[in-house]
Specification:
By secondary structure, the protein is an all-alpha fold. The protein contains 21 helices and no strands. The chain has two domains: 7-199 and 206-212, Up-down Bundle (Growth Hormone, Chain: A); 220-408, MFS general substrate transporter like domains (Growth Hormone, Chain: A). Helices cover 76% and strands 0% of the residues. Helix 8 packs antiparallel against helix 13 (258-279), helix 8 crosses helix 17 and helix 15 packs antiparallel against helix 19.
Length: 418
Amino acid sequence: MTEAVGRATFRQVLAEPVFRVLFWCRAVAVGADVLRTVALSVLVFAQTGSAFLGAMTFGISFLPQVIGGVVVGALPDLVRPRPLIVTGYLLEGAGAAVLALAGLPAWASLLLVAAIGCLGPVFNGTAGKLTADSLTGDAFVLGRSLFQLVVSAAQLVGLAAGGIAVAALGAEHALLITAGCHLVAALGTQLGLPNLPAPGRAKEQSLLRRSWRVNGELLRDRTVRRLLLTMWLPPACVTGAESLLVPYAAARGFSDGAPGLLLACVPVGMMLGNFVVARVLSPTTRERAVPLLVVVLGLPLLGFALELGVVALGALLVVTGFGFGYGLGVQRAFRDAVPGDVRGQAFGLMSTGLMTLQGVGPTVFGLVAEFAPVGTAMAAGGVATVLTAGWIALGTRERTSVVPESENAGSHSTANPR
């Protein structure tokens, strides 16, 4: 385990063998996921001519994750981590191969992606637990930052590479590349990750019963619940606003390439924000700055209610992306608030709620856009985010008191199962 007292560095974090394997294999897999999404979107649109179904490929794996979180969310705390992660990558690869070769109708392709997405909380929870077990203090926060950086980079590189691959090779061959990348990630994990023992065994005979019980205990713990909502609510509001960029650009009469340009601005800001928050701000400042960074996340969206040009709107979206760095100020408090024997399920629950609400957000603000101008609906997402920042600020004192309490055997949390 890498113990970080005070400030840590990216080099120290990547020197930890377990995290290093997780990081590089995850980088390959995330890039493959983005490539799959682009290729499948083209394939579904070509089959159906439906822009709605084509757009669904970008979020079809989000909402089903709540099923996996409820039914099998306890697996990361019960099963050896290496075979669990390898199985996840192999399932993703097999799914991409089936999409490429089986000639499935659009509905079946979307159903397959949704089915695999159900297991997302299990694999994300396992990776989160291993990261929390191998890195502590500021090193843990930087480790989470590196994961977020790789996701942002994959969104940029994967979208560009996906478009090139689909244009040059066709959607089916691009999906085969996706399958190959997941196979590489599986092999890298099998060869590089130690075969660590199973974390524990459930007293209950039913996996469903344990998953349901621990989720309930985590959500009933006031500190854990507040930290989870802090991670879930702002991205849900912002993603809801982002989902309206295409109709917004059409309503404003922008060029066909404008939506893609605007969408790319958010991950650029995310990369900048994660780097600055992780490496420039001290751990204490990082945690105190959470409400302010959430304001930075939401406030620029108010500009979409104005008649601004593409360049100005792109700059606002870069600032919005920067605000996503607020999550790094929550990570250490969450790790310390959760008992070690349910840590895998806790990180899986965090992922489940994050993905689920990012599926709900576009629905909510899409409905707002049915009754108000699109720009106003996007600005409403910004207002909701800023209001969330006020709620977070009210609980900042309680959140910062978690660390010293949790150092005392972690017994303060009602989420600790017995």
